[in-house]
Amino acid sequence: MSNRSFGGDFDRRSFVKGSALASGAFFINSKHNHLKLADNPSSPFTTPWVQPLAFSPYKVPLPSFAPLDPVPDFSRNQRYDEFPAVDFYRMQTCEVMCRSHPQLAMCAHTSYDGMVPGPTFMMRYGRPVMVRIENCCPAVMPSFGSCDIITHIHNGHHAPESDGGPWDLYSPGGYRDNHYPNIYSGGDPLEAKGTLFYHDHCHDFTGPNVYRGLVGFFLLYDNLDSGNENDPNPDAFRLPSGVPDGKRVKNRYDIPIVLADRLYDQAGMLSFNTMEMDGILGDKYLVNGRVQPYFEVERRKYRFRILNSGISRFHDVWLSNGMTFQYIANDGNMLPAPMELNHVPLGVAERADIIVDFSQLPETTTELYLVNRAEQVNGRGPTGNTLPMATAPKMLKFIIRPGAVADNSRVPTSLRSFLRWIFPSPASAPSTSTARTACGPSTGSCSTRTAAMRRARSTPRKSGTSARRADGLTLCTTTFRSHAGSPATGTRWRARSTRAARMRTRSTPAIRSRWTSSYANSSASTRCTATTSRMKTTP
After folding, report:
1. Alpha-carbon distances of 378 from 15, 318, 381, 393, rounded to whole Å
2. What does 96-161 look like in DSSP terms, one character per residue?
3. Residue 374 belongs to domain spanning
4. Can you point out the beta strands (E) in 320-458?
5. Domain tally for the chain?
6. Does residue 457 contact residue 522 with C-beta atoms inside 8 Å?
7. Residue 289 in domain
8. In this structure, what CATH number is given to the domain that contains residue 151?
9. Comparing C-alpha atoms, which of 327, 168, 164 is closest to residue 239?
10. pTM of the entire structure?
């Protein structure tokens, strides 16, 4: 296998090659997926609540006697000598046949390690790791999506050569060694992120590849969010703990939830309209890869880490009885204090950590549902209306067991403070820049011209705030994430020249960006994501 990546701006040859590939993909999809080029059909009927909620097993590091072969080239990883990997992992992307419901057909999915969602990484701050991700996909996808891959940890704090940039993709037979130092941005514990996830990030194919199954959880713990509700450390949060490990679900109360929506043709095969430029909406709700499963819970507190992995679907998550819960984290960032809410909206790729206390329910309540009350009629975004509870789609059924149980977990009154620079005084008006965009939510792209991944077209300031307005050619809703000044892109806060301002994220040592002191002083990859802003483009 080769450890290689591709990058740089498009030239004429790349454009012609890309056009040819796009044309070929069109005819491949036309030949094998005629339903996918027509209007979206309704999926076949499926009986809800017939299968239990499934969980992916933990990703286990390689034993010391079986290291990675060939040995990784550590010299390509910035600051590796400061944060040498303690654990090494090997993960493969491959095609797998599986079904999301007994009444649907066995379908080809693209998976990490043969499972959808992928295995759960259980990480700790201060324990660096290296993960080799091998591309074992078929040379040609039989329907939609791309056989080229590149894996990105969403909101991860990593150097550019391990961040999974969209054009650092590699083909079947290749691999990439990713160094994840698992350190706080700027060395500040306030920058800790707990609930992260990894996904394919292939340019123009992120949406289809995630739709096919390339997504999984990457969870990080530290001495505060320690993952132990019985932690004797007086500073520990002692939140509900125990992440299920595959079929090991007994006495596990820290529950990862991957929400998704999918469309199936009348044969029960996974369907994707490759010509739909406004985004794909499914009519089947999946939780952890299964259509409308059930989950048995005890009468105690549970922590739910909810990820919206749908490529176009927005969620407004409620419990069917309208009960409140404690909202403790957004996009992996702990809030200063828990918020008591009865619903939480989630945009695409957004996460929420909530604590639900089932002991507060009366003994007569034995069933409860997780529902989505966001009205959405197309992939451009929600209408803003809230669906009636009685007609809102039910995604997950909770079966509440009878009887009281011991519960040593708690919800602290204070969690992690926000950084002060996020909240400027009213007198400091944010600077505004405008970008004209043409959006295609089904592909995840948003640009009027071919992307120049190595060229910076705006330079944010570290002091103050910066608001970006997108004036688009179509109406769509998206979430903007800034990588400025973080090792995720290698840009510097104060560029001294146009050359220094360019985003150089190639893995080639001669031209890669320097992840040096600018990393130690920047926390920009960080709390911006804690206050997620959704911006609508206007014609």
Report:
1. 31, 21, 7, 16
2. EEE-SSTTS--EEEEEETTBSSPPBEEEETT--EEEEEEE---SS-SSSS-S-B-EEEET----GG
3. 12-404
4. 325-330, 333-341, 343-346, 351-357, 367-372, 394-404, 431-437, 439-440, 445-446
5. 1
6. no
7. yes
8. 2.60.40.420
9. 327
10. 0.77
Residue 197: φ, ψ to 5° = -145, 155
Q: Report the run of H or E that residue 178 belongs to, with start and end.
A: strand 175-180
- Is residue 332 exposed (0-12), middle (13-18) or buried (19+ Cβ within 10 Å)? buried
Instruction: Choose among 361, 350, 259: nearest CA to 302.
Output: 361
Closest CA to 325 of 357, 359, 366, 287: 357
Once rounded to an integer, what is the mean pLDDT over residues 33-55? 74
Mode of pairing for the β-strands spanning 254-264 and 301-308 = parallel
Question: C-alpha angle with apex 37: 36 to 43, nearest 5 degrees?
Answer: 35
Angle of CA points 472, 163, 68, to nearest 5°? 150
Q: Which residues contact 407 (CB under 8 A, 6 or more apart)?
A: 300, 301, 359
Q: Residue 224 gets which letter from DSSP? A: S
The encoded tokens of residue 74 equal 């550590």
In-domain check, residue 392: yes
Query: What tens digit of pLDDT does each residue of 245-296 get?
Result: 999 999 999 999 999 999 999 999 999 998 888 899 999 999 999 999 999 9
Q: Which tokens go with 37?
A: 């080029």
pLDDT in tens, 332-350: 999 999 999 999 999 999 9
Per-residue DSSP letter, 13: H
Q: What digits encode the pLDDT tens for the residues 97-134?
A: 999 999 999 999 999 999 999 999 999 999 999 999 99
Which pair of structure tokens corresponds to residue 210? 């995630």
